[in-house]
Amino acid sequence: MEIHFTPLRTGLLVALLATFAFLGGFTPPSAHFGMEVSGSQINRSWLSCVALFVAGAGMATIVDHWVGLMPPSNLRLLYVVVGILLMAVAILWYRSMLATWAVQLGIP
Fold first, then answer.
1. Which of 11, 38, 45, 53 could bridge 90 with an S-S bond, Cβ 3.0-4.6 Å?
2. Contacts of 108 by beta carbon, 8 Å cutoff, 6+ apart
3. What is the tens place of the pLDDT at every residue in 27-38?
4. SS3 content of the chain, % helix, strand, coil (to 5)
């Protein structure tokens, strides 16, 4: 597995992380509702979402993986697909956490 920081790949990685930040992914769920609650389960779930998204963004943009000797083949397409799936799961999981909190607090 190799990591390549070309300008295009670095720009895509920064754009994906900025999109996640714009969606509020780097903000803990308790901060969205102005609460001082900091349950360990909630923080662990939120940090797992952040880790999933960052790992998926990294896999989809900067990772190359060459296998074989004659001729070597690249598994980049697999990394891109898995990275996109990880990012989608992270966003859906984070949004479902926010929706669950809103329902529990009675916020429409």
1. 53
2. 102
3. 887 777 776 666
4. 65, 5, 25
In the chain, what is the straight-line distance between the N-terminal and C-terminal CA atoms, in Å? Answer: 46
Residues 6+ apart with CB under 8 A from 4: 62, 64
Taking only Cα atoms into account, the Rg of the chain, rounded to an integer number of angstroms, comes to 17
> pTM (2 decimals)?
0.86
For residues 68-86, average pLDDT: 92
Report in angstroms the alpha-carbon separations of 73 from 2, 66, 68, 78, 103. 13, 6, 6, 12, 49
pLDDT at 101: 77
User: Where do the DSSP E strands lie in 1-46?
Assistant: 2-3
